[in-house]
């Protein structure tokens, strides 16, 4: 029956002036993947094509300028939004110089009776009508786990092999919750660290790419493991909430040139993929830094043009939008500065000022222990009478603006001039130190965890110090 249906579809495609795209299939011999206008096909030595990779330039061919890999977990309550994001990708599609490849996971594929749950790896062609016949599905995997870091790593390794390019970008699309174990949002799906990533323990950690069917997600530590398998990326972007954090970034700093993410909750609409990809289609020779900056600017323009795109989210009561691009190699220098600051702070007698700065630095919704790093350091620099502490805070502020953040954009009065491109863990409440932080590289390589733990130890801060106006 499947063979007859494939034959009928192929015949219909030929009548319409379209050439069928086949792939080998162990069961029926060939599987119809999609169609390409016959007029655009190169002259072929034989009338039949057993492998879709034989079609240059739409499927494979010369090394492109860019391959953009988009890992989209719609196996949760973001399914409708992610479906719309994929359609935006189709509005632009791949070109001779830019390959767009997506792995889309869904619990239910409503337009496919033979494939109800799982993921599809798709070569994204220009398809503004969103016709299924023009969707080039290259692989299908039933019951795939979009919350397994190995699935994401396998997708990116596969995509890089099939679509070689001079530059690679990986975008992960889904809910994000930073690294915290204490996250209490709509997806408190935490899990213990495991042996297969070289670190284990009883503490739990949040992350990105939530799969409610499997109850799994990719933790911050696992993201580092995934990118180590994938290899070098020019850009890693998280189309997700709360992911532009020093600890999360430092975990993957060795594997990417630029990290694009938001310090704050993202509006439900996510990225403006049409605006992002049009620039790349028009200017495929764009540098990685310029493209990372464009991702930031295009998304800011998208929300600036229609504030209802974030204000309509009544549950989270969003007041704007933040997005930044960080130079990943500079994170090593930031870690050294944070270590220096922590050592000075732990010896400082100006502890009341430190706690004042933690309390008043800009925080973010649903994660009040995540604070804008520049905001925190500016308060230290303004209030501290401890000269080494003051000077180190100023040095970090300069490093953020001059060396670390390549692009930063905010929309909304709450964030304008107050969000500077990277957040950091700074707990305040007594006894609230999250020991999952100890499993992250930033905690292992610096004394930042010791400082955070000390801030939450009540015995270090005396009420009479807090009450003294002169200390502020």
Question: Descriptors for this entry?
Answer:
alpha+beta, globular, 15 helices, three-stranded antiparallel beta sheet, 472 residues, nine-stranded mixed beta sheet
Give the SSE layout.
Blueprint: H1 2-15, E1 18-25, E2 29-37, E3 64-74, H2 79-92, E4 98-106, E5 118-123, E6 136-142, H3 149-162, E7 165-173, E8 191-192, E9 204-205, E10 207-211, E11 216-219, H4 220-230, E12 233-239, H5 246-252, E13 256-261, H6 273-282, H7 288-305, H8 308-311, E14 321-327, H9 331-347, H10 351-360, E15 363-364, E16 367-372, H11 373-383, H12 387-404, E17 405-411, E18 423-425, H13 441-445, H14 448-455, H15 463-466
Parallel strand pairs: 3-4, 3-7, 7-12, 12-13
Antiparallel strand pairs: 1-2, 4-5, 5-6, 8-9, 10-11, 13-14, 14-17, 15-16, 16-18
Helix pairs in contact: 2-6, 3-4, 6-7, 9-12, 9-14, 10-11, 11-12
Describe, in plain words, how this protein is organized in 3D:
The chain is of the alpha+beta class. The chain is globular. Helix 9 (331-347) packs antiparallel against helix 12 (387-404) and helix 11 packs antiparallel against helix 12. A hairpin with a 2-residue loop joins strand 15 (363-364) and strand 16 (367-372). It has three domains: 2-54, no CATH class; 64-326, Rossmann fold, CATH 3.40.50; 332-471, no CATH class. It starts with a helix and ends in a 6-residue tail after the last helix. The strands form five sheets. Strands 6-5-4-3-7-12-13-14-17 form a nine-stranded mixed beta sheet, sandwiched between helices. 35% of the residues lie in helices and 23% in strands. It has 15 helices and 18 strands.
């Amino acid at each position: 029956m499947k063979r007859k249906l494939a034959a009928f579809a192929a015949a219909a495609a030929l009548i319409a002036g379209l050439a069928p795209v086949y792939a080998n299939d162990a069961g029926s011999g060939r599987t119809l993947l999609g169609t390409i206008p016959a007029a655009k096909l190169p002259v072929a030595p034989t009338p039949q094509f057993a492998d879709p990779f034989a079609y240059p330039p739409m499927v494979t061919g010369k090394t492109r300028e860019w391959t953009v890999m988009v890992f989209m977990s719609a196996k949760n309550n973001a399914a409708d939004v992610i479906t719309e994001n994929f359609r935006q990708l189709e509005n632009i599609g791949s070109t001779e110089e830019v390959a767009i490849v997506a792995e889309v996971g869904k619990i239910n594929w409503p337009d496919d009776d033979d494939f109800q749950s799982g993921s599809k790896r798709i070569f994204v062609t220009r398809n503004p009508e969103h016709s299924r016949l023009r969707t080039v599905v290259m692989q299908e995997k039933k019951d795939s786990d979009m919350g397994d870091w190995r699935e994401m790593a396998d997708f990116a390794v596969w995509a890089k092999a099939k679509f070689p390019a001079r530059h690679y970008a990986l975008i992960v699309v889904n809910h994000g919750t930073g690294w915290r174990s204490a996250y209490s949002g709509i997806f408190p799906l935490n899990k213990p660290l495991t042996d297969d990533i070289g670190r284990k323990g009883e503490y739990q950690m949040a992350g990105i790419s939530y799969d409610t069917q499997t109850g799994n997600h990719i933790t911050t530590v696992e993201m580092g493991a995934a990118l180590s398998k994938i290899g070098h990326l020019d850009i890693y972007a998280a189309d997700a909430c709360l992911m532009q954090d020093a600890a999360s970034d430092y975990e993957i700093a060795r594997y990417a040139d630029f990290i694009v993410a938001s310090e704050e909750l993202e509006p439900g609409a996510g990225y403006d993929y049409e605006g992002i990809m049009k620039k790349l289609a028009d200017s495929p020779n764009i540098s990685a830094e310029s493209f990372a900056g464009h991702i930031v600017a295009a998304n800011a323009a998208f929300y600036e043009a229609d504030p209802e795109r974030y204000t309509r989210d009544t549950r989270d009561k969003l007041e704007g939008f933040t997005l930044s691009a960080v130079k990943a190699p500079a994170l090593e220098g930031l870690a050294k500065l944070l270590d220096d600051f922590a050592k000075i702070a732990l010896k400082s007698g100006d502890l009341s000022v430190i706690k004042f700065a933690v309390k008043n630095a800009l925080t973010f919704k649903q994660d009040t222990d995540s604070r804008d790093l520049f905001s925190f350091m500016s308060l230290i620099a303004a209030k501290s009478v401890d000269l080494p502490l003051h000077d180190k805070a100023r040095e970090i502020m300069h490093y953020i603006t001059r060396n670390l953040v390549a692009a930063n954009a905010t929309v909304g009065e709450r964030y304008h001039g107050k969000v500077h491109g990277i957040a950091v863990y700074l707990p305040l409440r007594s006894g609230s130190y999250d020991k999952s932080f100890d499993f992250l590289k930033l905690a292992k390589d610096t004394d930042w965890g010791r400082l955070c733990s000390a801030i939450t130890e009540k015995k270090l801060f005396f009420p009479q110090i807090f009450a003294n106006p002169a200390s502020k």
